[in-house]
């Protein structure tokens, strides 16, 4: 699978460059003096060489969760062949691309103490975590088929699993508080725009066309299901429809 974030960052670096984000130890071709980068893909983080406590393990766990989220989405899409998982995958890739474009645009270095060499404004971890939480919150809150207790449990689980990711980036010194705050704000705005797009009638039509073109897909979005639209009613008989017979 193509990593859209890396592709966008590579293209923009050809134009703008990112030399201002590279730490001094990397410029001198020296190893990171603060620790080492662990994790995979979107779940990587700086593991410090000193000052490790149980909080460090908790922060590392949460910083690794975006990778778990991505794998879960991909496996879910393969297993269920559901439209919901495909939308989540598109949502993920768009968010990562937005983060990469903004990082290459602002070119703000990460704080002293990280082992990353890339730019840090905004935090892609925070953008992903906040955007998914806001999207889930909007879907769950506006559902008509879920009970209040079920909504509360889902929102609590999503908040517990996603929101601490933003804290972990500051705890591990991979981002500054301002970079995390910017990522969270951008992620929330992105989720609002995404949800607004999904609520449009044209999106529902597109999903129906996708289902017709690919019958193997499971049309499991929206959460409440797609209701058939009633036939259009002509309000004014002057537009070609015969007026109903008068009752005398």
UniProtKB/TrEMBL annotation:
Keywords annotated in UniProt: Membrane, Transmembrane, Transmembrane helix
Transmembrane portions of the chain: 54-79, 152-168, 180-198
One GO MF term: sphingosine-1-phosphate phosphatase activity
Pfam families: PAP2
Domain Phosphatidic acid phosphatase type 2/haloperoxidase as annotated: residue spans: 86-195
Domain of life: Eukaryota
PANTHER family: AT30094P (PTHR14969:SF13), SPHINGOSINE-1-PHOSPHATE PHOSPHOHYDROLASE (PTHR14969)
Record's protein name: Phosphatidic acid phosphatase type 2/haloperoxidase domain-containing protein
Organism in which the protein naturally occurs: Polarella glacialis
